Amino acid sequence: MQIPDWVQDAVFYQIFPERFRNGDPANDPPGTEPWGAAPTRDNFFGGDLEGIIQGLDYIADLGCNALYLTPIFKAATNHKYDTYDYFQIDPHFGDDTTFDRLVTEIKRRGMRLVLDGVFNHCGVGFAPFRDLLEQGERSPYRDWFMPYGFPLRPELPNYATCGGVGWLPRLNTKNPEVEAFVQEVVLYWLGRGIDGWRMDVAYELEPPFWRRLRQAVKARYPEAYLVAEEWRDPWPFLQGDTFDGAMHYRLRELLFDFFLKNALAADSFARALTLLRERLPEGSEWGMLTLLGSHDTSRVLTECSGNPKLVQLLFTFLLTYPGAPMLYYGDENGMEGGNDPDCRRPMLWEPERWKPEIRATVRQMLALRRAHPVLRRGAFEVAYAEDRVFAFYRVLGGERVLVVLNNTPVPRELALPVAFPEGTHLIEVLSHKEFTVRNGSVHFARLEPLRGWVLLSSG
C-alpha cells in the first residue's frame, strides 16, 4: 500500500477552530461569549484562523508537525459541519488572505495542513439546496439531493438528511454532477496549498465514490493524504485504492479496555491487539490516524476519571506506537470535558491551569519520536504480556527500542525476558536509569505503578 512518505513522520494536532484561540476579535460572531465560558451546541467564542496562526509556534514547540482542522468553510454553526459555501472561508474565521497566510506560516515551519471534507451532507444555506427550497421540482438541483416530496419542509424534513437533522440535507453523491463538484472542491483547496483531507462520515458514502476521488487527487497530488472517519472496521477503506488511512477509533477502544476499564489482562490485550493489527492490510498501519480523543469523544483525562498517571501511560503507548498519532487540542495539558459539546471547551492558555506532568510526558515522548526514526518507521513486536504489564519493541535495521508499560496500581518487581544480546547496556530515557541484560532478562527492582519506560541500547 502506497502511503505519502511524510505521513510516517507526522504527528497531528487537531484543532476545532472556533475554540482554539481568538486571534482577531473584529470578526467575532454576534453574541460571542467570554473565552472560557461553558460550551453549548450553539454558542460562539470567537476562535479563528488568526488564532491558529498565533498558536503555530506553540504547536511546533510541543513537537507536532501537522495540523488537522475541523471545517473552516462558510456555515451557520460553531462546528461548521453544515457547509454553506465550499469555496469560502467562514467570515468569522477570516478570509482568503488569512487562509493564505496560515498556509505560508505552516509551510515556513515545515509543517503540514489537512482539512475536513464534509461531502455526505451540506447546510440549508448551500446555494443548490436554497434553490431547491425555492423552486421545488423545477430546480436544476433537484437531483443533487434526495427529496421525498414537495414542498420541502426543513422543520420536519421530507428529504434525506444526516442523522435525521433537517438543517443537514444529504447530498446525492450518486449524481455525477455532485461527484464532479466534490472533486472540484477537493482539488481546489489542494491547489491552494493544503496537504490532504480527512473525510467526514466516510462510511456513509459508497467506496466507489472515494476510489474515483482518490484517482483524481493522486493524479495531480500524489503526496496528498486522504484519511477516512471510521468508527468500525476500516478494512474496506484500506485496500490501497481508496484511502491512505482511517481514524483508529478501534485502537482507542482497545486501549481503554486494557488501561482504563481493566476489562482485559495483558495477555488477552496482546491477543486482541494482534488481531486488530492483522485485520489491517499490509502497510496500511503507517497511514492510520491514531488517537485518544477528538471533537467527537470525551476528553482523555475525563475518560481516565481525572487520573493524570493513566493519561501519561496512554500517551506513552500512543506516541511510541506505529501510525500517525493525533493530539486533540488541549489534551497535552490535561483539559477535561465530557462528550460533545463539553469536549469542545475553549483552549486553556494559562500554564497555571495545565497538568504539568501530562504535558511533560507528551513533550518527552514527541521529542523521543522525533529523535529516533525507529519510533516512527520501525516494525512492531510484542515483547511481554503478563497480568498487568505489557511491553513491545520497535525495530528498524539494527536498532531496537523496548517500551514497558506497568498498568498495575502498585509497584512491581520484574525480570523481563528480552531479545537484546547478553550484556547489552540499556538506558531508560525518561529516568536515565541504566540496565544490563543478564541471563536473557532485564531486572526491574521497582516498576512504579501506572508508569511507562522506554529503553534504548546505549551501545
Layout of secondary structure:
Layout: E1 12-15, H1 49-62, E2 66-69, E3 73-75, E4 83-89, H2 96-108, E5 112-117, H3 127-135, E6 161-162, E7 165-169, H4 176-191, E8 196-199, H5 207-220, E9 225-228, E10 245-246, H6 249-260, H7 266-279, E11 289-291, H8 300-303, H9 308-318, E12 324-328, H10 356-371, H11 374-377, E13 379-386, E14 389-396, E15 399-406, E16 412-417, E17 425-428, E18 434-436, E19 441-447, E20 451-457
* Structural class assignment: alpha/beta
Unreliable spans are none
Given this structure, which CATH class of the largest domain is correct? Alpha Beta
Report strand order across the widest sheet: 10-9-8-5-2-1-12-11
Give the amount of beta strand, in percent: 15-25%
Shape: globular
Number of domains: 2
| CATH topology type of the largest domain | TIM Barrel
Rg computed from alpha carbons, rounded to a whole number of angstroms: 23 Å
The CATH superfamily label of the largest domain reads: Glycosidases
Helicity level, as a percent range? Answer: 25-40%
Distance between the termini: 34 Å
Biggest β-sheet: count, sense, barrel? 8 strands, parallel
Strand tally, please? 20
Mean pLDDT: 96
